[in-house]
Amino acid sequence: MQDFLQQTLTGDPPRSRRGSTEHLDWAWHGEGILSLTPHKTTHQALVLSAGIHGNETAPVEILNALITPLLTGARSLAVRLLVVLGNPAALRSGKRYQQYDLNRLFSGRWQRVSELAEAQRALQLEQALETFWRTCRDHEQRWHLDLHTAIRGSWHTRFGVMPHREQPWPQPFLDWLAAADMEALVFHRAPGGTFTHYSCEHHDAASCTLELGKALPFGHNDLSQFTGAQQALAAMLYGEALPPVRQPPRHYRVAQQITRQGDNFVLHMGEETLNFTAFPQGTLLAEEGDKRYYVQQAREFVLFPNPHVAPGLRAGLMLVEETPQTQALAL
C-alpha cells in the first residue's frame, strides 16, 4: 500500500494488511487506521489524526503527503506512529458528518446515540488508541495531534485547541506548537467530548486539536498557508530539526460556552463573523427562551460560532486572552 488516503476512500481493505520497508513495519487495523513501527528504538508514541470531519480536507492532504514517503520506503521514521482518518464515510461524501458530529462523541459519549454510525466509529477509534498506547514503554512520551480546519474564517489562520488537563503541559509539546507556526493556543478548563480530550483524559497524552485554515473541498486548499505546520510535522516524523519559531502564539482560555438546547435558539452573530472576533462587556451573544448569554469580561473573543448544531451541543465558545502572568499560573 503506497497511498493511504486513496486506499481509505475506496472503502475496501488493502490486499495486504501488513507490510514492511527497509525502515519500518506497517499494519492496517481497519478502515482509515494504520500503524507504522520503526525498526529502530524510539522515544515517542504519536497519534496523528485528520478527517474527523469529512469536509475538512487540507489536513488530510497534508497527512497523506507526510506518510507516503514512509510507506514507499523513501524516508525513515523517528517515532512509533498511529495514523487515523477519522470519518471515511464523511470524507467520501464531502460532508462534515453523516448523522452526528463525531468530535462530540468521545470519552464514552457515543453511548448516548449508540445506534448511529458515528457512535460506532468513536468506539472503534477509542479502542484503536487504547491498543496503540497499551504497548507504550515507560520512556516513550505520548502525543496526539488531531488536524482540522474551521467552518469559518479566522483572525488567526492557524491555532491550537488544548483540552482540559490537570498537569502542566510538557514544554517540548508547547515548543513544538510554536515551531508549527500556531498563531494562538486556546486552553479549555473543563472536559469535553473531542478526540483530543479523550487522549488527554484517558491516556495522559499531550494532545491538541490543530485548526489549519477554513474547510474546503479536496483539491481547493492552499497548502502554502500551512508550510510551518507541515515542516514541523515532517521534522518530528523524520527525526529532523524543528523550523525556527517565527512568533510565539497568543494564549486564550475558555471563559464560557454557549449551548443550543432547542429550536428557539438565536445566535446574535452573522455568518460572516470570524473566529476570534472581539465583543465588549455586556454584549448580548445569544438567547433561547429565558436564557441569555452576555459578554461577562471586559472583552471576550468568539470561537466556533455555529447556530446550526444539534440540540445540546456547543454553539460557540467565548474566550479571554491571557497575559504572560496568567499563562505562567495556568501552565
From TrEMBL:
Q: Cross-referenced InterPro entries, in alphabetical order?
A: AspA/AstE_fam, AstE_AspA_cat, Aste_AspA_hybrid_dom, SuccinylGlu_desuccinylase
UniProt-listed Pfam families: AstE_AspA_cat, AstE_AspA_hybrid
Q: In which pathway does it act?
A: Amino-acid degradation; L-arginine degradation via AST pathway; L-glutamate and succinate from L-arginine: step 5/5
What keywords sit in the KW lines?
Arginine metabolism, Hydrolase, Metal-binding, Zinc
- Does the UniProt entry include the keyword Hydrolase? yes
Q: Which cofactor does it need?
A: Zn(2+)
Q: Where does Zn(2+) bind?
A: H53, E56, H148
Spell out the catalytic residues: E211
Enzyme Commission number, as recorded = 3.5.1.96
Cofactor binding remark: Binds 1 zinc ion per subunit.
Reactions mediated catalytically: N-succinyl-L-glutamate + H2O = L-glutamate + succinate
Name the enzyme's class. hydrolase
Any one GO molecular function term: succinylglutamate desuccinylase activity
| NCBIfam families recorded | arg_catab_astE, PRK05324.1
HAMAP family, A to Z: Arg_catab_AstE
- What name does the UniProt record give this protein? Succinylglutamate desuccinylase
Question: What organism is listed for this UniProt entry?
Answer: Pantoea eucrina
